[in-house]
Specification:
There is one protein chain. By secondary structure, this protein is an alpha/beta fold. Among the domains are: about 1-70, Winged helix-like DNA-binding domain superfamily/Winged helix DNA-binding domain (Arc Repressor Mutant, subunit A), CATH 1.10.10; about 160-270, Periplasmic binding protein-like II (D-Maltodextrin-Binding Protein, domain 2, 3-Layer(aba) Sandwich). Helices cover about 45% and strands about 25% of the residues. It contains eleven helices and twelve strands. Strands 3, 4, 5, 6, 7, 8, 9, 10, 11 and 12 form a ten-stranded mixed β-sheet that branches. It has a two-stranded antiparallel sheet with strand order 1-2. Helix 1 (about 5-15) packs across helix 2, helix 1 (about 5-15) packs across helix 4 (about 60-85) and helix 2 (about 20-25) crosses helix 3. The longest helix has 27 residues, at about 60-85. The radius of gyration is 22 Å and the shape is globular.
């Protein structure tokens, strides 16, 4: 149903690399080049700039890309609707997850969903909250699971699981297992996630509401993953705020400890986002229903109490 040349164009645009696009599509690189050339002849305009050994979109390519993403989304929805009319959900589903969810929760969600809907082929895309929401608005994914507030009015956002952020310190740190005053944070190096991270937004907002000014913090390093934060703390580079879901293994092994910060509330909700309008249907709707149910069970298993009602 979908135009194959546009599929090739999207792959090259995503990777900014003809060879990687060929690997994804199981084609030879000359075949990818031929399809792009044919598409450029069809539109009468170059779509990629390949000068200087780098691949980038031309102005025409930038214009075409969102239309190509929308056509893929429409094709997927049509496929889902027709297949679902004949029985259980089947076909492709692409979901995105920000890093904490993607690393520590999404594999469980996908495994449980696959047991219930084995005919649905789930593809997962990762990134920080801003990147995942951008993929959602481009229709590169159908659902987005995020850990920070969605600062967009063109999306619907539903909370599905409560999360608690904790201050993690090296096992030998003076703060290990202790409660500290908020002002003490200014006396030690703090490791933070990069700009665009939902975790960073939550931490900065909580500190601001508690009365801690950003300029008073000693932000020693910014890292683009939760694993990077944990490794940095283990190496003695500073302390960091991370999700309790992320630090469970280190707490069991004794390589990291928690510290409590007096007067600091670091609770957030993991949320499911999708384009504004009707609730998702087809495969996306099936995943949404499963997620809401399974997340409540996971919270009960982890904490011994049910998640918040939605």
């Amino acid at each position: 149903m979908e135009n194959f040349r546009l599929k090739v164009f999207r792959a090259v645009a995503h990777h900014r690399n003809f060879s990687r696009a060929a690997d994804e599509l199981l084609l030879t690189q000359p075949a990818v080049t031929q399809q792009v050339k044919a598409l450029e002849e069809e539109y009468g305009a170059p779509l990629f700039d390949r000068t200087g050994g780098r691949v980038s979109l031309t102005a025409a390519g930038e214009i075409l890309l969102p239309f190509a993403e929308q056509l893929k989304s429409l094709s997927d929805r049509a496929y889902e609707a027709v297949r679902s009319a004949g029985g259980s959900p089947s076909g492709p589903l692409t979901v995105g997850a920000s890093q904490t969810i993607g690393q520590y929760l999404l594999p469980k969600f996908i495994a449980g969903f696959a047991m219930r809907h084995p005919r649905v082929a789930v593809k997962a895309v990762g990134g920080n909250t801003d990147a995942i929401l951008e993929a959602l608005t481009r229709r590169g994914i159908q659902l987005a699971m995020i850990e920070g507030p969605a600062l967009r009015k063109d999306l619907r956002v539903e909370p599905f699981m409560e999360d608690h952020l904790a201050l993690v310190v090296p096992a030998s740190h003076d703060w290990a297992g202790q409660q500290i005053a908020l002002g003490d944070l200014a006396s030690t190096p703090l490791l933070m996630r990069e700009f665009g991270s939902g975790t960073r937004r939550v931490v900065e907002r909580a500190l601001r509401q508690a009365g801690m000014r950003k300029k008073d913090l000693r932000i020693a390093m910014e890292l683009d993953s939760t694993e990077g934060l944990l490794s940095g703390v283990e190496a003695g580079l500073g302390v960091a705020f991370v999700s309790r879901w992320a630090v469970r293994n280190q707490l069991v092994l004794g390589t990291l400890r928690l510290a409590r910060v007096e007067g600091l509330k670091l609770t957030r909700m993991f949320s499911l986002a999708y384009p504004a309008g009707p609730e998702p249907s087809g495969n996306a709707g099936a995943f949404r229903r499963f997620l809401m149910e399974h997340a409540r069970e996971e919270t009960l298993r982890e904490t011994g109490r049910p998640g918040k009602k939605r």
